[in-house]
Protein backbone atom coordinates (compact mmCIF):
# COMPACT_ATOMS: atom_id res chain seq x y z
CA UNK A 1 0.00 0.00 0.00
CA UNK A 2 1.40 3.36 -0.99
CA UNK A 3 0.01 5.50 0.80
CA UNK A 4 -17.11 21.92 -3.63
CA UNK A 5 -16.43 22.84 -0.02
CA UNK A 6 -12.92 21.62 0.05
CA UNK A 7 -10.81 22.33 3.12
CA UNK A 8 -7.22 23.04 2.18
CA UNK A 9 -4.55 22.74 4.81
CA UNK A 10 -1.60 25.00 3.86
CA UNK A 11 1.92 23.63 3.98
CA UNK A 12 2.76 25.68 7.10
CA UNK A 13 -0.40 24.77 8.99
CA UNK A 14 -0.07 22.27 11.44
CA UNK A 15 -28.89 -1.88 22.09
CA UNK A 16 -29.31 0.73 24.74
CA UNK A 17 -32.25 2.29 22.98
CA UNK A 18 -34.53 -0.54 24.11
CA UNK A 19 -33.18 -0.63 27.65
CA UNK A 20 -34.08 3.08 27.92
CA UNK A 21 -37.58 2.28 26.75
CA UNK A 22 -37.82 -0.57 29.25
CA UNK A 23 -36.97 1.84 32.07
CA UNK A 24 -39.64 4.30 30.94
CA UNK A 25 -42.20 1.52 30.51
CA UNK A 26 -41.47 0.15 33.98
CA UNK A 27 -41.86 3.62 35.49
CA UNK A 28 -45.14 4.25 33.70
CA UNK A 29 -46.45 0.83 34.68
CA UNK A 30 -45.63 1.54 38.30
CA UNK A 31 -47.70 4.71 38.11
CA UNK A 32 -50.68 2.86 36.72
CA UNK A 33 -50.54 0.21 39.44
CA UNK A 34 -50.16 2.61 42.37
CA UNK A 35 -53.02 2.49 44.90
CA UNK A 36 -55.48 5.37 44.92
CA UNK A 37 -54.16 6.69 48.21
CA UNK A 38 -50.67 7.44 46.89
CA UNK A 39 -50.03 11.15 46.51
CA UNK A 40 -49.07 12.90 43.28
CA UNK A 41 -45.73 13.95 44.79
CA UNK A 42 -44.89 10.36 45.69
CA UNK A 43 -45.63 9.14 42.17
CA UNK A 44 -43.40 11.79 40.58
CA UNK A 45 -40.60 10.95 43.03
CA UNK A 46 -40.69 7.31 41.97
CA UNK A 47 -40.39 8.18 38.28
CA UNK A 48 -37.60 10.71 38.92
CA UNK A 49 -35.42 8.15 40.66
CA UNK A 50 -35.90 5.67 37.88
CA UNK A 51 -35.05 8.22 35.19
CA UNK A 52 -32.14 9.86 37.00
CA UNK A 53 -30.07 6.74 36.59
CA UNK A 54 -29.96 7.59 32.90
CA UNK A 55 -29.31 11.32 33.28
CA UNK A 56 -32.76 12.47 32.13
CA UNK A 57 -35.90 13.57 33.85
CA UNK A 58 -39.34 12.58 32.53
CA UNK A 59 -40.94 15.18 30.31
CA UNK A 60 -44.42 13.77 29.98
CA UNK A 61 -45.53 12.83 33.51
CA UNK A 62 -48.51 15.13 34.04
CA UNK A 63 -49.82 16.01 37.50
CA UNK A 64 -53.19 14.27 38.00
CA UNK A 65 -56.11 16.38 39.20
CA UNK A 66 -57.10 13.77 41.76
CA UNK A 67 -55.57 10.77 43.50
CA UNK A 68 -56.88 8.55 40.70
CA UNK A 69 -54.45 7.80 37.83
CA UNK A 70 -56.33 8.45 34.61
CA UNK A 71 -55.49 6.31 31.56
CA UNK A 72 -57.47 8.19 28.94
CA UNK A 73 -54.42 10.11 27.71
CA UNK A 74 -52.29 7.00 27.41
CA UNK A 75 -51.83 4.88 24.33
CA UNK A 76 -53.39 1.45 23.69
CA UNK A 77 -50.69 -0.23 25.76
CA UNK A 78 -50.97 2.19 28.65
CA UNK A 79 -47.90 4.20 27.54
CA UNK A 80 -47.75 7.79 26.36
CA UNK A 81 -46.16 7.53 22.86
CA UNK A 82 -44.69 11.02 23.19
CA UNK A 83 -42.72 9.86 26.23
CA UNK A 84 -41.08 7.15 24.14
CA UNK A 85 -40.19 9.55 21.36
CA UNK A 86 -38.34 11.77 23.77
CA UNK A 87 -35.94 8.98 24.75
CA UNK A 88 -33.87 8.84 21.55
CA UNK A 89 -32.62 11.70 19.38
CA UNK A 90 -33.00 10.71 15.73
CA UNK A 91 -30.11 11.21 13.35
CA UNK A 92 -29.96 14.77 12.04
CA UNK A 93 -27.91 14.63 8.81
CA UNK A 94 -27.65 18.42 8.65
CA UNK A 95 -25.61 18.45 11.87
CA UNK A 96 -23.50 15.35 11.27
CA UNK A 97 -19.91 16.33 10.46
CA UNK A 98 -17.95 13.98 8.23
CA UNK A 99 -14.48 14.79 6.88
CA UNK A 100 -13.58 13.18 3.55
CA UNK A 101 -9.80 13.10 3.67
CA UNK A 102 -8.22 13.02 0.21
CA UNK A 103 -5.34 10.59 0.48
CA UNK A 104 -1.88 11.96 -0.46
CA UNK A 105 -1.15 15.39 -1.93
CA UNK A 106 -0.33 17.07 -5.23
CA UNK A 107 3.34 17.08 -4.18
CA UNK A 108 3.29 13.50 -2.90
CA UNK A 109 0.88 11.74 -5.24
CA UNK A 110 0.79 8.23 -3.84
CA UNK A 111 0.72 5.25 -6.17
CA UNK A 112 0.95 5.59 -9.94
CA UNK A 113 -1.65 3.67 -11.90
CA UNK A 114 -0.99 1.20 -14.69
CA UNK A 115 -1.71 4.03 -17.14
CA UNK A 116 0.50 6.59 -15.38
CA UNK A 117 -2.19 8.52 -13.49
CA UNK A 118 -1.44 9.59 -9.92
CA UNK A 119 -3.47 8.08 -7.10
CA UNK A 120 -4.13 11.60 -5.76
CA UNK A 121 -6.19 12.33 -8.89
CA UNK A 122 -8.38 9.27 -8.29
CA UNK A 123 -8.72 10.07 -4.59
CA UNK A 124 -9.76 13.69 -5.11
CA UNK A 125 -12.31 12.82 -7.78
CA UNK A 126 -13.96 10.09 -5.70
CA UNK A 127 -13.98 12.22 -2.53
CA UNK A 128 -15.81 14.99 -4.37
CA UNK A 129 -18.31 12.51 -5.76
CA UNK A 130 -18.97 11.14 -2.27
CA UNK A 131 -19.36 14.67 -0.91
CA UNK A 132 -21.91 15.45 -3.60
CA UNK A 133 -23.87 12.30 -2.84
CA UNK A 134 -23.84 12.94 0.92
CA UNK A 135 -25.03 16.52 0.53
CA UNK A 136 -27.79 15.29 -1.73
CA UNK A 137 -28.97 13.17 1.20
CA UNK A 138 -28.93 16.12 3.61
CA UNK A 139 -25.43 15.77 5.08
CA UNK A 140 -24.68 19.46 4.68
CA UNK A 141 -21.57 19.32 6.90
CA UNK A 142 -19.71 16.86 4.65
CA UNK A 143 -16.30 18.37 3.84
CA UNK A 144 -13.49 17.36 1.48
CA UNK A 145 -10.08 17.78 3.12
CA UNK A 146 -7.17 18.44 0.74
CA UNK A 147 -3.72 18.67 2.28
CA UNK A 148 -0.50 20.11 0.85
CA UNK A 149 3.09 19.08 1.34
CA UNK A 150 5.19 15.95 1.41
CA UNK A 151 3.85 12.63 2.58
CA UNK A 152 4.63 12.33 6.29
CA UNK A 153 4.24 16.01 7.28
CA UNK A 154 0.93 16.11 5.42
CA UNK A 155 -0.39 13.27 7.59
CA UNK A 156 0.01 15.36 10.74
CA UNK A 157 -1.55 18.39 9.03
CA UNK A 158 -4.66 16.50 7.98
CA UNK A 159 -5.08 15.01 11.47
CA UNK A 160 -4.76 18.47 13.05
CA UNK A 161 -7.29 19.92 10.58
CA UNK A 162 -9.81 17.14 11.23
CA UNK A 163 -9.44 17.52 15.00
CA UNK A 164 -10.04 21.27 14.77
CA UNK A 165 -13.29 20.61 12.93
CA UNK A 166 -14.57 18.39 15.77
CA UNK A 167 -15.91 15.99 13.18
CA UNK A 168 -18.13 13.02 14.00
CA UNK A 169 -16.31 10.81 11.50
CA UNK A 170 -13.25 10.85 9.25
CA UNK A 171 -13.12 8.77 6.08
CA UNK A 172 -9.79 8.74 4.24
CA UNK A 173 -10.11 7.98 0.53
CA UNK A 174 -7.38 5.98 -1.25
CA UNK A 175 -6.82 3.71 -4.24
CA UNK A 176 -4.65 0.65 -3.98
CA UNK A 177 -1.40 -0.60 -5.47
CA UNK A 178 1.01 -3.46 -4.66
CA UNK A 179 4.54 -3.75 -3.30
CA UNK A 180 7.20 -2.92 -5.91
CA UNK A 181 8.34 -6.55 -6.04
CA UNK A 182 5.02 -7.51 -7.66
CA UNK A 183 5.21 -4.96 -10.47
CA UNK A 184 5.63 -5.95 -14.11
CA UNK A 185 6.70 -3.73 -17.01
CA UNK A 186 4.57 -2.74 -19.96
CA UNK A 187 4.19 0.18 -22.32
CA UNK A 188 1.12 2.41 -22.49
CA UNK A 189 0.73 5.09 -25.17
CA UNK A 190 4.43 4.98 -25.91
CA UNK A 191 5.50 5.36 -22.28
CA UNK A 192 7.01 2.78 -19.98
CA UNK A 193 4.75 1.86 -17.13
CA UNK A 194 4.15 -0.80 -14.50
CA UNK A 195 1.21 -3.01 -13.66
CA UNK A 196 0.15 -5.96 -11.53
CA UNK A 197 -3.03 -7.83 -12.40
CA UNK A 198 -2.40 -10.28 -9.57
CA UNK A 199 -4.62 -8.56 -7.00
CA UNK A 200 -7.69 -6.36 -6.99
CA UNK A 201 -10.64 -5.25 -4.88
CA UNK A 202 -11.42 -2.77 -2.13
CA UNK A 203 -10.28 -2.91 1.49
CA UNK A 204 -11.21 -1.07 4.69
CA UNK A 205 -8.76 -0.21 7.48
CA UNK A 206 -9.05 0.92 11.12
CA UNK A 207 -6.49 1.48 13.87
CA UNK A 208 -6.87 -0.22 17.22
CA UNK A 209 -4.93 2.74 18.63
CA UNK A 210 -7.69 5.18 17.70
CA UNK A 211 -9.30 6.88 20.71
CA UNK A 212 -12.67 5.49 19.62
CA UNK A 213 -11.68 2.21 18.03
CA UNK A 214 -14.99 0.45 18.69
CA UNK A 215 -16.96 3.15 16.88
CA UNK A 216 -14.38 3.21 14.08
CA UNK A 217 -14.84 -0.53 13.68
CA UNK A 218 -18.62 -0.12 13.67
CA UNK A 219 -18.47 2.24 10.69
CA UNK A 220 -15.81 0.12 8.98
CA UNK A 221 -18.07 -2.92 9.16
CA UNK A 222 -21.06 -0.94 7.87
CA UNK A 223 -19.01 0.42 4.97
CA UNK A 224 -17.51 -2.96 4.05
CA UNK A 225 -20.95 -4.55 4.25
CA UNK A 226 -22.29 -1.99 1.79
CA UNK A 227 -19.39 -2.61 -0.58
CA UNK A 228 -20.06 -6.34 -0.55
CA UNK A 229 -23.77 -5.73 -1.05
CA UNK A 230 -22.88 -3.84 -4.24
CA UNK A 231 -21.26 -7.00 -5.57
CA UNK A 232 -17.67 -5.83 -5.02
CA UNK A 233 -14.94 -8.13 -3.73
CA UNK A 234 -12.40 -7.18 -1.13
CA UNK A 235 -8.63 -7.44 -1.50
CA UNK A 236 -7.63 -10.59 0.39
CA UNK A 237 -3.87 -10.28 0.01
CA UNK A 238 -3.28 -8.11 3.08
CA UNK A 239 -3.69 -11.11 5.38
CA UNK A 240 -1.17 -13.19 3.41
CA UNK A 241 2.52 -13.56 4.34
CA UNK A 242 3.48 -12.74 0.74
CA UNK A 243 2.70 -9.09 1.53
CA UNK A 244 5.66 -8.88 3.93
CA UNK A 245 5.59 -5.63 5.92
CA UNK A 246 2.31 -4.71 4.24
CA UNK A 247 0.53 -7.64 5.85
CA UNK A 248 -2.25 -6.65 8.29
CA UNK A 249 -4.60 -8.55 10.62
CA UNK A 250 -7.98 -9.29 9.08
CA UNK A 251 -10.70 -8.24 11.52
CA UNK A 252 -13.70 -9.26 9.42
CA UNK A 253 -13.11 -12.09 6.97
CA UNK A 254 -16.57 -11.75 5.43
CA UNK A 255 -16.32 -8.11 4.36
CA UNK A 256 -12.61 -7.22 4.30
CA UNK A 257 -11.94 -5.01 7.32
CA UNK A 258 -8.28 -4.88 8.36
CA UNK A 259 -6.38 -3.20 11.16
CA UNK A 260 -3.61 -0.74 10.31
CA UNK A 261 -2.69 0.28 13.81
CA UNK A 262 0.27 2.60 13.18
CA UNK A 263 -1.20 4.70 10.37
CA UNK A 264 -1.17 8.29 11.63
CA UNK A 265 -4.39 9.42 10.01
CA UNK A 266 -6.26 6.57 11.73
CA UNK A 267 -4.62 6.40 15.13
CA UNK A 268 -4.14 10.11 15.92
CA UNK A 269 -7.57 11.53 15.11
CA UNK A 270 -9.88 12.37 18.00
CA UNK A 271 -12.92 10.94 16.26
CA UNK A 272 -13.78 7.59 14.66
CA UNK A 273 -11.57 7.17 11.58
CA UNK A 274 -11.66 4.71 8.68
CA UNK A 275 -9.57 4.36 5.53
CA UNK A 276 -11.09 3.05 2.31
CA UNK A 277 -8.96 1.61 -0.47
CA UNK A 278 -11.66 1.89 -3.12
CA UNK A 279 -9.96 -0.42 -5.61
CA UNK A 280 -6.65 -1.24 -7.29
CA UNK A 281 -5.37 1.19 -9.93
CA UNK A 282 -2.25 -0.88 -10.65
CA UNK A 283 -4.52 -3.69 -11.88
CA UNK A 284 -5.17 -2.77 -15.52
CA UNK A 285 -8.77 -3.98 -15.70
CA UNK A 286 -9.74 -2.56 -12.34
CA UNK A 287 -8.12 0.79 -13.14
CA UNK A 288 -10.53 1.21 -16.04
CA UNK A 289 -13.47 0.46 -13.74
CA UNK A 290 -12.24 2.90 -11.09
CA UNK A 291 -11.93 5.54 -13.80
CA UNK A 292 -15.57 5.14 -14.83
CA UNK A 293 -18.37 7.35 -13.52
CA UNK A 294 -20.49 4.21 -13.01
CA UNK A 295 -18.05 2.73 -10.48
CA UNK A 296 -17.57 6.07 -8.77
CA UNK A 297 -21.34 6.47 -8.39
CA UNK A 298 -21.63 2.91 -7.11
CA UNK A 299 -19.01 3.44 -4.40
CA UNK A 300 -20.38 6.89 -3.49
CA UNK A 301 -23.81 5.37 -3.00
CA UNK A 302 -22.37 2.63 -0.79
CA UNK A 303 -20.47 5.13 1.36
CA UNK A 304 -23.57 7.31 1.73
CA UNK A 305 -25.72 4.35 2.77
CA UNK A 306 -23.12 3.38 5.38
CA UNK A 307 -22.92 6.95 6.74
CA UNK A 308 -26.71 7.14 7.06
CA UNK A 309 -26.83 3.86 8.97
CA UNK A 310 -23.91 4.95 11.13
CA UNK A 311 -25.61 8.24 11.96
CA UNK A 312 -28.77 6.40 13.02
CA UNK A 313 -26.92 3.88 15.16
CA UNK A 314 -24.86 6.68 16.73
CA UNK A 315 -28.07 8.49 17.72
CA UNK A 316 -29.39 5.38 19.44
CA UNK A 317 -26.13 4.92 21.37
CA UNK A 318 -26.12 8.57 22.49
CA UNK A 319 -29.65 8.14 23.82
CA UNK A 320 -28.55 5.50 26.32
What does this structure look like?
Helix 1 packs antiparallel against helix 2 and helix 6 crosses helix 9. The protein has 9 helices and 10 strands. The protein folds into 2 domains: 234 residues, Zn-dependent exopeptidases (Aminopeptidase, 3-Layer(aba) Sandwich), CATH 3.40.630; 70 residues, no CATH class. Strand 8 and strand 9 form a beta hairpin. 38% of the residues are buried. The longest helix has 26 residues. 38% of the residues lie in helices and 16% in strands. About 23% of the residues have low confidence. The strands form 2 sheets. The chain has an 8-stranded mixed beta sheet, with helices on both faces. The protein has a two-stranded antiparallel sheet with strand order 5-6. It is of the alpha/beta class. The chain is globular.
Instruction: Give the helix level as a range of percent.
Output: 25-40%
What composes the largest sheet? Answer: 8 strands, mixed
Highest CATH level, the class of the largest domain: Alpha Beta
Number of helices: 9
Number of domains: 2
State the distance separating the first and last CA atoms: 39 Å
What is the string of SSEs from the N terminus onward? EHHHEHEHEEEEHEEHEHH
Low-pLDDT regions: 13-87
Helical/strand content category: alpha/beta
- Compute the average pLDDT: 80
Strand line-up across the major sheet:
1-3-2-4-10-7-9-8
**Rg calc:** 25 Å
CATH architecture of the largest domain: 3-Layer(aba) Sandwich
Keywords:
320 residues; Aminopeptidase; alpha/beta; 8-stranded mixed beta sheet; two-stranded antiparallel ribbon; 16% strand; globular
